[in-house]
Batch of 3 targets.
Target 1
Amino acid sequence: MTVAGFTFNAFSENTYLLIDETTRQCAIVDPGCYEVAEQQALRQYVASNGLQVVLLLNTHAHIDHVLGNQFVLTTWPGIPFLLHRFDLPTLRAVPTYAANYGFPQYQPAEPTGELVAGQPVRFGETELEVRFAPGHAPGHVVFYHEPTSVVIGGDVLFQRSIGRTDLPGGDHATLLHSIETELMTLPDATVVYPGHGPATTVGEERRGNPFLTSFNK
């Protein structure tokens, strides 16, 4: 599996394509594409690289991570859209405030299935482990691919920072517990692709993240 990333919308949100190199099937995670140019960039990358989009995944459902959900489902019709059930209220609240955040053309989309911790997600010959990591959002999950030592982490852990916990459903202690149990238990070389900012590693954050001093070794 390889990872291709895009940075979209006013929140500089990271959208990821997870590509199964054997079959060229791919999953789109957290599509933040809102402007037409952003949507075209995603569509053109898929086409020019001979990819087959087969799955839409959300780590969580804050507005910056779901702006492109409906675009993806319209562009590649019939693909499953999976979200943890605890974040359904987060997703369904987006239309109530999207215009106030500068996204009046937001189009909502409903999941077709749910993500469950411990139940793998598969596409092509790739299998992702779903890990439940609430704290930033009630139904936040991360996706771990052990063969390539990669985590698609959403807004849980950033380079030298962690996700905010002042939004509805957020909780600082819960987020720290999620990081401790779901990310700090992974090998230090594991690459974390976050929802904002550059990629980092578990070891780098264990040693140098000021929010994780209790885990630093």
Target 2
Amino acid sequence: MRGLDATVTGRLLGPVLALLLALLAGCGLAAYTPTPLPGNGATAAPTSAPPTSAPTTAPTRCDNALASYDPSDTEGAAVQRIQKRGRVIAGVSADTYLLGSRNPFTGRIEGFDIDMVKALAKAILGDENAYELRVITAAQRIPSLENRSVDVVARNMTITCDRWTQIGFSSEYYRAGQKILVRRGSKATTLADLKGQRVCAPNGTSSMTNLMKLQPEAIAVGADNHTGCLALFQNGDVDAITGDDTVLAGLAAQDPYAVVPDQKAFTAEPYGLGFNSRDVDLIRFANAMLAQMRTDGEWKQIYDRWLADALGAAPAPPKAVYGRTA
């Protein structure tokens, strides 16, 4: 199944998505948990993975979570497997506006993370449209890699030491930070202000972990994804949403009553492309691709296409850290 290019700009999408979500909330779907939709080569990934043996390449300790494998354009076994198949299979979001979301006009999934998948497909196969997208929740990211239902996860995934014990990561391709989203007119501007309030974050994410750790006096409310959080927010069932600034910017663009207050991020969230821990050659290949994107301007072009309007002028791309050994 071939990937499809975006044809509708984010400026048009925001109001339409806001209207669609408002209609959902008006229908009383407070507990709405979206089901992944097929199309654009997208299929729902399994909700759970069979047990797998412990990864043989995971480090026993983690001095620097951002350290990945040195870049290389050598076409090893994992790269050759994709070349033989003829497409990259990627686990993505279909409801994270600006990063990976379904365009309601075209049905295509598009965003910053999707452009990363396109770049990987072009690097491996010479064709940026040689990819298949499989829609997964945040909680399905690691199982989907462990059971090899996808080659790569491009779904605003934070690199952590704990996750390195289960999967492998590329070098950092974006640096986000966790913030809060509240109703317009709210006096809450920081996480500390949310004591006793109902705050939503997706289950199985570092956003939920950070919420419970950094503000244990808030009432944590889980959802399958941030769209589920937005539905709860619009229906009045939660007072705030917490997540990466990239994600919250997309939510605010969909709802005129939602705002991300001027605030300092209370965490650093370095995004990496996720891979099966045994596919070290594929990780090295992806790192070579990302290294080129940082220097030839492609990274900035992708940022400007999706994030500049919401987050401002492009920063310098995150610097890569290498040196990890299998």
Target 3
Amino acid sequence: MILRLASRTAVLVLSLLAASLIVFAVMQVVPGDPARVALGMNASEESVARLRSEFGLDRPWPVRYLDWLAGWFTLDLGRGYVSQAEIAPQLVDRFSVTLWLVGTAMLLALLLAVPVGALMALRHRSSVGVVLSAVSQLGMAVPAFLAGMLLIAVFAVRLGWLPSGGWSVPAEDPVGFLRKLALPAISLALVQAAILARYVRNAVLEVMDTDFIRTARAKGLPRWKALVRHGWRNAAVPVVTVLGLSLTSMLVGAVVIERVFVIPGVGSLLVDAVAQRDLVLVQDVVMVLVALVLVVNFLVDVLYVLIDPRIGGRA
């Protein structure tokens, strides 16, 4: 197990380095001169050249890449080309907002998907299982932003129960924070809950057909107790894979949801940076998102070993 974790950690580090090189290279071939964008199209060539020198754009790209990489280790990411604001504090502030949104949405998705998926499996031959299966299929087809707009139309506009957007700092306004978090978190969770419920259903059906569950049932245990006592751990392995994919999907989906609900998260920061052509800020935000995806995949591998130590033994 230790050997597997060490190898996966090494793969994570190498993947992060490769991803940083790819992100940096892509930003270098994007058309447009950041200095000219910052000064405007009517700026003189002398002014553009001077600003390029201030930005360090006149240095060779390997030097700029190493400086950028070193900045991640020292948390000194410099300033945006257009806004001239420090990038690191912006990322920390926006990332904390996105974490609240994605974390709450994932928790809601799990609380909904696990019992519903298990019920779909245990009652798959009944009308309850068929109806729940049909609802989950419909939920998978609805985009998160459309779910968000429908929730706004019903609960914010028509009923007036919750605000349609905005954000409050949890420490300053806990009640306002929860009210403003509810709709975006639910809209982000619904689609992923439908997907997770389908995988939970399939995993439970597969486990319920195993010999050790049949033995437990033969000893008099009801299906629910047999599943809880003997089946959950085995059913969790394939679900964890989808859980990791759902978390990365939520990170990407948060970009759109934050715009729909006017939430100042990483997604909104990325969209604003793209609109302003602030390439160094785009580069840093994209790197954060890529790093999060890689770290999630790493944590999924760690959960594999914790859930089923035999996986580590086979590595």
